[in-house]
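Homework help board

Subject: predicted structure for assignment chain

Our instructor gave us this sequence and asked us to write out the predicted structure in token form, then describe one feature. I got the tokens but I'm not sure how to describe them. Can anyone check?
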Amino acid sequence: MLTAEQLIAAQKTNVETLFGLTQKAFEGVEKLVELNIQVAKASLGEVADHAQAVLSAKDAQELLALQTSLLQPSAEKAAAYSRHVYDIAASTNAEVTRVAEAQLAEAQRKFLAVVDSAVKNAPAGTENAVALVKSAVAAANNAFESVHKAAKQAADVTEANLQAMANTAVKATQAAKPKRPVV
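My token output:
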């Protein structure tokens, strides 16, 4: 049986974990805000430079070459931005997952301790029920492990696909970049 002190300690641990996870989430948001500010500053400077170049273009051919020269860097920057956003989200998710897994492992440990205590104190003749409870707990742990492994594999596949798409987009813009005529 759980005592009042054990319940209070568990509640305190849960509150501390909640505040810790909230802090990690805010850190992730801060990183996204910082990234967006950096991108906005860089974009503003690039727009000003481009506007100056467009205004100083002497003819339509020079203007077209200027516009075309912007395509590749823009695609590369978009791919890099997407990668940064993904990295921030992935690191925040990894930290939250680490904390959640630690909490789950602790909860499982405590639950197994309660089950073991109940098994030790079980009245004679309840061996079949005890075996059934132990079997159910083992099955639940195995199911959890299977789901956890499948989720990890799905995350790995998603990351690989995002990386491949970013690389493909950058290569496509590089291949589409027209060659400048030699004058």
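Reply (TA_rk): Your tokens look well-formed. For the description, you could write something like this. The mean pLDDT is 80. That's the kind of observation they're looking for.
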